[in-house]
Each structure stands twice: as structure tokens, then as C-alpha cells.
Amino acid sequence: MCARSESESISRSVRVLLADDAPVVRRGVADLLDEIQGVEIVAQTEDAPQTTSAIMEHHPDVVVLDFRMPGGGGLAVLEAIKNVDPHPVVIVLTNYPEPAYRASCLAAGADYFLDKSTQFNLVADIVRKVAAGNPAQNQQTPSPKPVRIMVADDSPTMRRMVMAVLQSLPEVTFEQAASGLEVIEKLALAQVNLIVLDLNMPDMHGFEVLQFLRQHQAYKDLPTIVLTTRGDELSKATANSLGASAYLTKPFQPSQLLNCARQLLKLS
Fold first, then answer.
1. Are residues 57 and 152 in the same domain?
2. HEC profile for 105-167?
3. Same domain flag for 152 and 124
4. What's the pTM value of the predicted model, to 2 decimals?
5. Distance, CA of 214 to CA of 261 (rounded, Å)
6. 1 domain residue, yes or no
7. Which of 177, 224, 242, 257 has its Cβ near the most Cβ atoms within 10 Å?
8. Do 19 and 126 fall within a single domain?
């Protein structure tokens, strides 16, 4: 199992306000921030007037702000709070990442402008920096590094499930392999940053794939998560001895797989 680690040293608590008219988005951000030490969600709002009032009342350190909300949207909130002192770090999180909207929000005082579909997890990275005492980088959006993950499993359904869990990682793309031999063939054609590897596959067992990886200079440090139905201690010990980076069993917890991938990819 991968243990969570903080990439920033926490120096203070952080009060966060979540503003989005979609409850599922607020829950998603809250779950993301729940794993960060010292973070407190002080209010959740669903329209611009509520958000402005809550900022004045709670004085949050960070505001995660939807661009399009009832009552005027994110721009109305930014205009209303432009003279608030101390000014919160404002992260605009939107489904409308058009350059013109980004420019308008940054000009109005937002510190970050993130695309919900590809940069959702960057909210946690920014809050960690605030908790570590690092100042916001006004008008700068972190550029996520492209991530390529190979999902190796002979079950198409399982491959789809794994990709559905990991698709929230920033700038992620996937390679799929249905057998051990296909893993090796595709590694020769495309560079990957992480492998999620089943053990019981046709042609070549997952243990053999692990052995191949660790015996070749190009792949000896390639992070590899074994994801298998085999929960016995012997299989786990064998995988670890062959160089598995992590060992998870099916049925798996989506959050556990996602957190493990983030840690191995050094995204958290």
C-alpha cells in the first residue's frame, strides 16, 4: 500500500471556502482537500451573492471559485472582493477554460485559473503551498507535466475501471495491454511513467513482466503498481522481491489506487 506523504512542510492552518453551484464538484474538492493536514472548509456556497457574503464573514485564506454560477458568476465575486484585506488566494475552477475567460479572471484578481477536466487535482497542490507559507503566484497557472500510464490487464472491463479512476490526474494519457507480452512490446514503442499491472495474464505472467522490467536499465526504476485478485502473502512477497512499487488487491478502493499513483508519480 502507498502511504500518503506531504510534499510541503505544513506551517499553518488554511481556511478554505468552496463556491460552486454543483454539489458534486464541492464534494470532490472537499474530498481532495480532506487529506491535507491543517485544512478547514469554513463554508460552501452555490451562487455569487452567497459567496461574496461568506468571504466577508469567514475571511478564508483560499477561495475555490466556479466561473459560472447564478447571481453573476465568478467575475462578480472577484469584483466584489477586490478590496478585501487580507485578500484570499482565489482559484477559479471551471469547465470553460477559454483564454478570454482566463485573462478576465486573472485581471480581476484571481490567482489561478484551472480547467476542471484536466487540472482538478492541482487545487490540492496550491493549497499545500499556501499551508507551507508560500505566497500565491498571481496570474500564473501551474503547468502539469504530461503523464502516460500503461494499464495491463486481460479484462477490458478492469482496464476501463482503472482508467476511469486515474483519468483525473493532470495531463494523463493511457496505453493498454491485454497480456504480458503486449506490455513489453508497447514499452519499446512508447515511453510511460507508470504501469498498473495484473498478475494473471495470457502469454506472460505479471511476475515475469516485473522481472523483465527490473533487469533492463531503461525500465529498472519504472514505477509499477501490481493490481491483482491474489491477496495471499506469498504472492505479495514475490511481487515485492521482484521490484513492485506497490501491491493492491481487487476489488480495489478507487481512492487508494489514485493516491498511490499520485505518490509514485510525485504529484503529491
1. no
2. HHHCCCCEEEEHHHHCCHHHHHHHHHHCCCCCCCCCCCCCCCEEEEEECCCHHHHHHHHHHHC
3. no
4. 0.51
5. 19
6. no
7. 224
8. yes
Give CA–CA dist 197/256, Å, rounded: 15
User: What secondary structure letter does DSSP report for 186?
Assistant: H
Residue 136 within any structural domain of the chain: no
> Which cell is 113 given?
485559473
The residue segments making up the domain with residue 257 are 147-264
Alpha carbon 59 to its chain's center: 27
Do 207 and 235 belong together in one domain?
A: yes
pLDDT tens-place values along the chain, 268 residues long: 564 444 445 557 899 999 999 999 999 999 999 888 889 999 999 999 999 999 999 999 999 999 999 998 899 999 999 888 788 999 999 988 887 888 889 888 999 999 998 888 899 999 998 988 876 665 454 455 678 999 999 999 999 999 999 988 878 899 999 999 999 999 988 889 999 999 999 889 999 999 999 999 989 999 999 999 999 999 999 999 999 999 999 999 999 999 999 999 987 5
Length, in residues, of the chain? 268
10 alpha-carbon distance from chain centroid? 19
The rounded distance, in Å, linking the Cα atoms of 214 and 222 is: 8
Measured CA distances, 14 to 39, 62, 74, 132, 162 (Å): 5, 7, 21, 9, 32
C-alpha–C-alpha distance, residues 105 and 97, integer Å: 11
**Chain centroid to CA 23: how far?**
19
